[in-house]
Each structure stands twice: as structure tokens, then as C-alpha cells.
Amino acid sequence: MDLDTRKIAFVQEFLKLQSDDVVSRFEKILKKGKKEYL
Known about the structure:
Blueprint: H1 3-15, H2 20-37
């Protein structure tokens, strides 16, 4: 599976989430990841 397909699948699953806690965890992971790559 190529990167673009993996990203699309991830976003589709992310949009199905109903838990604020899980969304908050992903936000923290994303912020941490951005800091590491900048």
C-alpha cells in the first residue's frame, strides 16, 4: 500500500471516531510529530 492510500485510509478511520479523548490523543501525537520534523 502506498503512502497516499495509507493516509486516505487513516483519515477515513479518523473521521469515524466518536471519542473526544481519542481525538485529543491524536492531536497531541500530531503536535509532537510536527515538532520533531521541523
